[in-house]
Write a structure and sequence with these properties.
The structure is a single chain. This protein has one helix and four strands; from the N terminus they run E-E-E-E-H. Strand 2 and strand 3 form a beta hairpin. It is α+β, with helices and mostly antiparallel strands and 63 residues long. The longest helix is centred in the last third of the chain and has 14 residues.
Length: 63
Amino acid sequence: MDLTGAKWRKSTKSGNNGGDCVEVADNLPGVVLVRDTKDRDGGMLAFGPAAWRAFVAQVAERA
């Protein structure tokens, strides 16, 4: 899968203090990517769209 077209955006819950931040790329068909803002060249997680929605829903319930 070609991921070069990923458009990354910082989580709306991330602050500007350089703390624990994640970036999400959800513009590619069939996949949502997540990476650590402080280690952009490191690994990333890949979710299917349905799995991503379920993950976000679970996190929102616990917030």
